[in-house]
Design a protein that fits this description.
Blueprint (H helix, E strand, L loop, with lengths): L2 H56 L2 H16 L6 H8 L6 H6 L12 H5 L4 E14 L5 E14 L2 E16 L4 E12 H10 L2
Helix pairs in contact: 2-3
Keywords: Membrane, Transmembrane, Transmembrane helix
Amino acid sequence: MRKSTIIIIVLTVISAILFGIAMKDSFNRAQRTEETVKEIANTQTQITQQKENIVQKENKYTPVKEDMLRFLNAMYSTNELSMLKKFQLVKPFLIGNALQQLEPKGDQGMPSGDEETKKEKINYTQKLKQAQVYYAPSEDGMVANAVVFFTVSSSLNGASNDANYLLHAALQYDTTKKQWLISDVIDNQLVTDALEASYFHP
């Protein structure tokens, strides 16, 4: 057998061995990667399940009612006239669709553009007078649904007035803040308007 042939055979064997080692190493890396991906997926599943368990545990009348009342007090127990400033007060209680639903368009509030209005002293107070919260959890326990009948007492330059409102909202639990946040405002209006709408549009 010629020397060149022996060299070719030896190189072929070495190449085959190196190829086998490379394939085995590649297979091991792929296997480790697959195991890592499975571990990450299992961890994420466990975290999600833990969060769901926390939410379902907190989805009860008392915590939902307390967080709903915190929102209503922030919104209505204030002497602030500007709706933009009011929105900043209630923003920590909102999430998802509710942020867009309650964000005012422009600086809504008492008119203050003309000179006469600016000179006039305005004494304005507002307070949440009473509230009755009705509650029901969603089927999966991840959302709380609340209907609230509440009364807001307001006074403008000594003239007092009480107004009755209806609020229907969905709430989601924030596991970081550990509180229920308004996620969707389904209905929010004066009770008289709601009754009229129900009467004329059955």
